[in-house]
Design a protein that fits this description.
The protein is α/β, with parallel strands linked by helices. The chain has a single domain, classed as 3-Layer(aba) Sandwich (Rossmann fold). It is globular and about 45 Å long.
């Protein structure tokens, strides 16, 4: 298989530096086992000192890395609430729109509808998707539609959310990376 660059999306960018670096290097090493090269946002850190719009520079740097990538591995573990990190969700949508093979995972075993309230409607009377999916149906279904999946771990969600060290599950990342390598290989074969 030709070595493919994979954009690693997820809330890990917000972890304390030492833990973030450890998780990033672990994920890159796992991808290498399958002939893939991981790219993380810190691989392309823009100079922010004195910048008039640092958020835009970070966006441009991340988008540049996504444009250099031929696939995506996204961590959709609930972050600061019942759903995945919204930046990661954007990155997933961007890569799927580009037609890139994509896989995602969440360490969370609790279905989205149970994390929200376990009812058909929330406290404001708004409908809650009753499908028992990992997150919003547009995430699960978009991955499935292009051959990927959103793999679910075995950690139940608590009201406090997940601790920083809980965002990485080596076995889950390995399963997702293996399936992503298979998706990429199929794509390469179809292009021959």
């Amino acid at each position: 298989m030709t070595n493919r660059r994979i954009y690693l999306a997820g809330p890990e960018v917000f972890l304390p530096d030492g833990l973030r670096e450890q998780v990033e290097s672990s994920k890159k090493a796992i991808l290498e086992e399958f002939g893939l090269t991981g790219l993380v946002p810190s691989d392309n850190t823009p100079e922010l000192e004195g910048a008039s719009h640092p958020a835009f520079l970070i966006y441009q740097a991340n988008r540049e890395l996504m444009n250099q990538s031929q696939g995506l591995l996204a961590n959709l573990t609930p972050f600061r609430g019942p759903s995945a990190d919204v930046g990661t969700v954007f990155e997933l949508g961007y890569m799927i729109a580009r037609g890139c093979p994509s896989m995602a995972y969440t360490v969370c075993s609790t279905p989205y509808n149970e994390r929200v309230s376990g009812m058909e409607r929330d406290a404001n009377g708004l409908t809650i998707e009753p499908f028992g999916l990992s997150d919003n149906l547009m995430l699960d279904a978009s991955l499935e539609a292009q051959g990927g999946a959103l793999l679910r771990g075995n950690r139940p969600c608590s009201p406090e959310g997940f601790r920083p060290e809980d965002y990485f599950d080596e076995a889950l990342v390995r399963r997702a990376a293996e399936q992503l390598a298979g998706l990429i290989e199929r794509q390469v074969q179809e292009q021959l």
